[in-house]
Each structure stands twice: as C-alpha cells, then as structure tokens.
Write a structure and sequence with these properties.
With 132 residues, the protein is of the alpha+beta class. The protein is 42% helix and 16% strand. It starts with 18 loop residues before the first helix and ends with a strand.
Length: 132
C-alpha cells in the first residue's frame, strides 16, 4: 500500500488552521502596499464604434456586389482571374469597378488567390480573400 505523508482533507472545515494563519487572514493590506485602483484607459465611448458598425454595413453591400457578379457570371470570373494572373492591374480595377463598387478599394493577387480590400476613409474596411 502507498503511504502519503501529506494528509488530504476533503471537507474545508477539516483543514488544520493555526492561530497565526487566522491573524494573517483578517489583517487588511496597508494602503501603500495595495495596488492602485486606476484605469490607464480613457472612459468608454461607443460613438465611434457605432459609426463604424453602421458604415461597415455599406461596405458589406459593396462586397456583395463583387461576389454576386463573380458567382453569377462565368465570363466575368474568367476575365477577372485572367487579368489578375497576367498582372494587368488596370484591367482588374476596371472589372471590379464594373460590378458597381463605388468606394475606394485595393486589389492584390498572387498566382493562387485574389485579395480585395474595401475601405471607408480610415474608419473601417473589409478584406475579401478568394482562392482559385
């Protein structure tokens, strides 16, 4: 049989307590040793967050225009992918604009994916990653 030299008490009232431990438990921490209760951040203001949430809805509608066009038109998807693979930035930008996107965007592409970032004046943005 294994002998455990350290007793294990299941019920909290069975733990042995010494008078010293009880004295330390009730002593308050001196104020100069306590952590300061200051918040380093400014007060929470949700105004800008709510504006960003409202504007992101419009950006999502613009992203929907592009993805709907790619999904519904085989010719458009072919032309966009071909222009991207040929690194023809002006043609890629022209094709994206032809979907009805009116906001500022930045298109990047690699041999295996296409990334477009729709931005709204530093407020917020959405990045769409499409693989092929």
């Amino acid at each position: 049989m294994y002998y455990n030299p350290y007793p294990y008490f299941v019920h909290p009232y069975h733990y042995p307590t010494s008078p010293l431990a009880q004295q330390l438990a009730v002593r308050p921490i001196p104020q100069h040793l306590a952590m300061p209760n200051t918040n380093p951040f400014p007060p929470v203001d949700t105004h800008k967050l709510k504006i960003s949430a409202t504007r992101i809805k419009a950006i999502m509608q613009q992203a929907q225009l592009l993805t709907d066009k790619i999904d519904s038109s085989q010719q458009f998807a072919h032309d966009l992918m071909n222009a991207a693979q040929l690194s023809n930035k002006t043609e890629v930008d022209k094709l994206i604009t032809s979907t009805g996107i009116t906001m500022k965007f930045d298109a990047n592409y690699t041999p295996d994916n296409f990334r477009i970032r729709l931005m709204d004046n530093g407020c917020c943005g959405i990045t769409i990653n499409l693989s092929w």
